[in-house]
Amino acid sequence: MSPKAQPPGIAFRKHDHRRCQRQLLAEATQLCAERNLRLTSRRRQVLEILLASHQPMGAYDILAKLNRTAPNEQIAPPIVYRALEFLLGEGLIHRIESLNAFISCAHPGHRCGAQFLICRDCDQVAELEVSDNGLLAEAGSLGFAVDHSVVEITGVCAECQKHVG
Amino acid sequence: MSPKAQPPGIAFRKHDHRRCQRQLLAEATQLCAERNLRLTSRRRQVLEILLASHQPMGAYDILAKLNRTAPNEQIAPPIVYRALEFLLGEGLIHRIESLNAFISCAHPGHRCGAQFLICRDCDQVAELEVSDNGLLAEAGSLGFAVDHSVVEITGVCAECQKHVG
DNA sequence: TATGGTTACGTTATAATATAACACTATGTC
DNA sequence: GACATAGTGTTATATTATAACGTAACCATA
Ligand SMILES: [Zn+2]
Ligand SMILES: [Zn+2]
Ligand SMILES: [Zn+2]
Ligand SMILES: [Zn+2]
What we know:
Two copies of one chain form a homodimer. Chain A is an alpha+beta fold. Chain A has a single domain, classed as Winged helix-like DNA-binding domain superfamily/Winged helix DNA-binding domain (Arc Repressor Mutant, subunit A, Orthogonal Bundle), CATH 1.10.10. The first copy, chain A, is 42% helix and 18% strand. The first copy, chain A, has helices at 17-34, 41-51, 59-69, 77-89, 133-141, 158-164; strands at residues 93-96, 101-104, 115-119, 125-128, 145-156. In chain A, the strands form two sheets. Chain A has a three-stranded mixed beta sheet. The first copy, chain A, has a two-stranded antiparallel ribbon with strand order 1-2. In chain A, a hairpin with a 5-residue loop joins strand 3 and strand 4. In chain A, helix 3 crosses helix 4 (77-89). The first copy, chain A, is globular, with a radius of gyration of 17 Å. The complex binds zinc ion (4 copies). Residues 10, 15, 17, 20, 54 of chain B line the site of one zinc ion. The structure holds a DNA duplex.
């Protein structure tokens, strides 16, 4: 089975996010099963926190949320960072470098680089998946062997442009 | 006068860096004069430290270098960050988000977004200037108003590929 | 050349982000 | 159960960045 990926720019569209969320969690669960990896409760907890929205969250925001849900235990940074590391490694979340923050992946399992549109008004982030040929071509012509690419475009989404103008 | 920009990928080519450095400093000086801005000695100091190579440096590396050159005074972080802020604002340097580091700009004054190839072997960073159409087109089709773009490609440069075998 | 406004610099303290190191616990295998 | 391994918990600390406030340099005008 190959579940359908979220369409590009979904973060900026009105959509049934409950469903969006459920679908992505199911995909993550399945993907871990297929890879024989353990989506432990900590890891799932962190993933669910990120799946709750299309907004990126800092590691310490996630930490705070964890500690709010379970005020008896006192969770420390390494726990969060380790869960994030696992999720990043499996392509279930992405790191937004220009925000020092993390966001759930809209197409779990795609191992290639993603591109992000970041609205500085509503803080939503949409994930694209464009084969940005021009750039990779230039890299190729210089004999540069690409490993990983970070593409983060900041601006104002269509919805927010309406509300301001 | 419009001085010639460094060709794309210069960081990965053998070149007369003394000259490269001199040229970029001259351009920076002129540009500040034209804009009626003060390239103070602190700012110039920080710029010169970055111009010394095509490798990005962390703010604290720059700080350490400043303090090494003048062991009598004890310079503190805000001084460095303020100089960096000025240089960033004028497009004389760039911030490499994925490294939390700074690098001198190869085309001072160009206000548009740049793209970087980052060699994880030799730590050199080459600045490109490609109109990466595919991506901006996608952004446009979503009605997203682009503000600033971060493009950072990590990999291994041609030279380093030879040396590893 | 005084005077006042502005910009830049210096200093101290602290915030925000991230990791090292090591002990303990759960999980799967024999 | 004994063992190896992977995951978690805990403490301390490293790294990156900024807030707040005072001082000095610069620049215009009188
Ligand atoms: Zn959604
Ligand atoms: Zn928006
Ligand atoms: Zn050079
Ligand atoms: Zn290299």
